[in-house]
Amino acid sequence: VSTQSTGDVGTLQRLPKIVGSQSLVSEYCLTGRKVFSDEALRVGVVSRVLPDRATVVECALDMAQGIAAKSPVAVQGTKSNLVYSREHSTQEGLDRVALWNSAMLLGTDIVTAMSGGKEFEDA
């Protein structure tokens, strides 16, 4: 509302699921008030608070390198199934990940990793 428009980038759809409090989300969205790091951490909008920009960049690069060291198929599947499971029941999520995994068994990542030819990092 602070930009004189209704949010249209997914915030109104995602924030209630993250915060878990409709009244708090309504307060944020209807007032446009700033949310500072301590509150964002407490309500689950962010997973951690870092002391400065340099540390943020360092941690982001470390995380990116850790993810990049994993199987691309496993990373993409995990991301896709996490997003899917936000909107579906546990059973629907389990069914989808089983289907995903059965389809991905045809790929080389699984075969290579299982045969010991390539091991992805445990980062």
Structural class: mainly alpha
Largest sheet: none
The count of DSSP E runs of length 2 or more, i.e. the number of strands, is 0
Rg from alpha-carbon coordinates? 19 Å
Q: In sequence order, what are the helices and strands, one letter per element? A: HHHHHHH
- Poorly predicted runs: none
Percent range for β-strand residues: under 5%
The coarse silhouette is extended
Instruction: Classify the helix fraction into a percent range.
Output: 55-70%
> Helical stretch count?
7
What's the pLDDT, averaged over the residues? 85
End-to-end separation: 41 Å
Helices and strands in order:
Elements (H helix, E strand, L loop, with lengths): L10 H9 L2 H10 L5 H7 L9 H16 L3 H15 L3 H15 L3 H8 L8
Structure description:
The protein has helices spanning 11-19, 22-31, 37-43, 53-68, 72-86, 90-104, 108-115. The longest helix has 16 residues, at 53-68. The model has no long low-confidence stretch (mean pLDDT 85). α1 runs antiparallel to α2 and α5 runs antiparallel to α6. With 123 residues, the protein is an all-alpha fold.
Can you summarize this structure?
The protein is mainly alpha-helical and 123 residues long. Helices cover 65% and strands 0% of the residues.
